[in-house]
Each structure stands twice: as C-alpha cells, then as structure tokens.
Specification:
Helices cover about 30% and strands about 25% of the residues. It contains three helices and 13 strands; from the N terminus they run E-E-H-E-E-E-E-E-E-E-E-E-E-E-H-H.
Length: about 220
C-alpha cells in the first residue's frame, strides 16, 4: 500500500493514531462520569446519615402500626428511619432515649400524644386532650381493652419541657402512664419520617437481608 506524503512526512500511520486518541478520550470521559456519580452518591449518603438514623423495632408496644422483634438479635421487626432534625407534633411516632424506673437507658419507639401544658386523660381507652376527645385510627379495639385499669388514666397536665407518649398497643405498652413517665424533649432522638413509614416493607426487607439473612448464611457455612 502506497504511503501518503505531506510536506515530506509519511502520513500512513496518522489515521491509526487519531483512532487511538478517540478511544482514549472516550475512556477518560467515562471514567470522569463514573467518578462524578460516585462523588454524588458519597455526598448524598453523608447528608442522609447526618439527618436520619436507622431504628429497629423491638417488642409489641406499637402493634398494629409497627411489628416488633422479640429482641435485637432476632429478625422479625420493622426497620425505620427517624429524622433527627424534625420537630414532633402530636400523633407523630418518635424515637426516644429513655430511662426506666430503675434508671436503665434504652431506645424506645412511641407515639407523641401531648406536649407541655396540655392535659391528658384516658377514659376506658378513649383519649381526651384538654377535655376534647381525640380520634386515634391507629389504635385497634383488641389492643385497647376498656376494662383494663391501665386504659383509664389521669387527668394529668404535661409539665414544661416534656411530652406525653403512649404505644399504639395500649394494653401492653410501657410508656408515660407508668414505666417511663413524662419524656424530656431533649431525649427525643428523632421523628419517624413519613416516607419511611410509606416504604416500611421495602426498607425492612432490605435491612433484614443484610442484618440477619446474610450473617446467618455465612455463619452456617462454618457449621460442622
């Protein structure tokens, strides 16, 4: 094949070098795009973690709204995310760093019922705030037995700087009525995000797989 001469230079290899440069440019471009995507994911994850904290539900106090495991080491509970920057309103599900009657600290999940200055009363399972009846669609009759003494309570006024909380499973929940008393607002870790409740099934399945299913698979590999 005859070489092409231009101004005394052999140009036969010129098209090949151009093709190599084009392939190299495409590779650099793809690498830059991938790097930008990874950077965006990293920044988003840092922002997410700085605002939301993951919570695992243990116990039956929030039935039927939330399913709880028997303890933290077992699967079966719901996973949720709490917004640590949100301000709770009455009716919100909140995550609390609480102390029981023995002074033991633990993380609990309850529903905020009333805030400072409001008067709370339960009459055979019916909730009254400042003397007005409150509808609670999240509480079901089988978990709110009218004849149980625990479901008649008050009236009590919530002190300054505190909130009153209860679990949706009123028959068994340990909450402001007994074990934990009034909750200091500074002990509220966060408010369960509405999107977290809406995506509860997916979030729980995803986290359960990585927290309990995968470790069980690998631990079983070493069994004899």
């Amino acid at each position: 094949m005859r070489s092409i001469m231009l101004c005394g230079f052999d140009m036969s290899g010129f098209p090949i070098s151009i093709g190599r440069r084009e392939r190299k440019s495409r590779g650099v471009y793809a690498a830059n795009v991938l790097l930008i995507i990874l950077l965006i994911i990293l920044v988003w994850e840092m922002m997410f973690v700085s605002r939301y904290t993951r919570v695992y539900v243990v116990g039956d106090s929030m039935l039927p709204t939330l399913q709880g495991a028997q303890d933290k080491t077992q699967a079966g509970g719901d996973f949720l995310y709490a917004d640590t920057h949100a301000t709770a309103e009455n009716g919100d599900i909140i995550v609390i760093s609480a102390h029981d009657e023995f002074g033991e600290e633990k993380v609990i999940i309850k529903r905020q019922i009333a805030f400072e200055g409001q008067t709370v009363q339960l009459v055979r399972g019916v909730l009254y705030i400042d003397g007005e009846m409150v509808e609670e669609p999240y509480v079901v009759a089988e978990n709110n037995t009218a004849s149980l003494p625990v479901n008649t309570y008050g009236p009590v006024t919530v002190p300054e700087g505190c909130v009153f909380v209860m679990g949706d499973n009123r028959d068994v929940s340990s909450d402001s009525r007994s074990k934990y008393g009034m909750i200091d607002t500074e002990d509220i870790i966060g408010v369960v995000a509405p999107w977290s409740l809406a995506l509860k099934g997916f979030i729980t399945s995803w986290n359960t797989f990585f927290e309990y299913t995968v470790p069980a698979i690998f631990s079983g590999c070493g069994a004899r």
